[in-house]
Amino acid sequence: MDYFLTEDQTMIRDLAREIAEEKVMPVRAELDEKEEFPWEIMKTLAQSDFMGIYIPEEYGGMGKGGFELTLAIEELSKACLGVSTSFAANALGTYPILLYGSDEQKKKYLPDIASGKKLVAFALTEANAGSDAAGVQTTAKLEGNKYVLNGTKQWITNGGEAEIYTVIAITDKNKGARGASAFIVEKGTPGFTFGKKENKLGIRASSTRELIFENCRIPKENLISKEGMGFIVAMKTLDKSRTGVGAQGVGVAQGAFEAAANYAKERHQFGQPVISIQAIQHILADMATQIEAARALVYSVAKYIDSEAKDISKESAMAKLFATDVAMKVTVDAVQVMGGAGYMREYPVEKMMRDAKILQIYEGTNQIQRNVIGQALIKETAKKKE
Fold first, then answer.
1. Which of 229, 303, 342, 349 has a CA 20 to 30 Å removed from the CA of 5?
2. Class of 7-119 per CATH?
């Protein structure tokens, strides 16, 4: 479908597609096999100004919105979810500063982020705090003009590679979720180290590590917003970023669909191309329809969020939920269409199926997305009765 993109949006999409095809596809299998962080591709994206797509021009960015970012994420995801995760997680880590940072914090950090000089990570998840974000146990105690952080973060995307970390920690244990605060922590700060690099099912080019804070002292100026705002900062950040995960779902599904359809044209059985068999046509028809529906939803929600609508949680959750469920179904179906070949590592759909699973898990499991949607529906129903 034609989504009537502007000239700038078309340029972003086409350049992302070119980078995906020329820089990502030739190395994606090797990156996956070696679990190697895609630094060279990150440098290419930085040189193309992609790291600053959503960052205001005054800080060196393009001054575009989340919609333009989703276009780039979708194209990269067609080629490799490991690469697109490394790219998208940079925005996830930046949103707390962009949404709630002080003028001084924005001036200090955003230019280096927009230029790609420094990579960012978002640190919320812990052993006992994932879906239950209120279960954060990492603490931050104000001592003089420094906050002292203690605790461990788990499964942090871009962990170890990023230079800047936006971290959620508890400043008042007696207030539960209302006692959480958000901080900026720089790599190399004494008391801040990294644990093991995780060995994952998919997105193996993406670095996932533990963050360890042992009496890590940071300036009190590194507090984002004010004490007690951490949970809100985290939730509003995820509301903004979930269309990016939806775009990953659309992208990997599209890549798998194209690989399966092309194979079905070339593979002959019973004296005809496999794509001539109605059973295969029906699978491909469902795949194509589901992808287009997911894309339409993700695009419309991304534009809705860019319109600065105030309450976006339900729509953001819907985009993430639907598009990532589609991604899992489509990648599994792509393997089925390709049969034995689809199961082999020499073809890309085996990797796409492994990669797609994480989309239903990170940035809020799809069960949590259903909770968010359900709670929003209850509120809407209550308002209509008033």
1. 349
2. mainly alpha
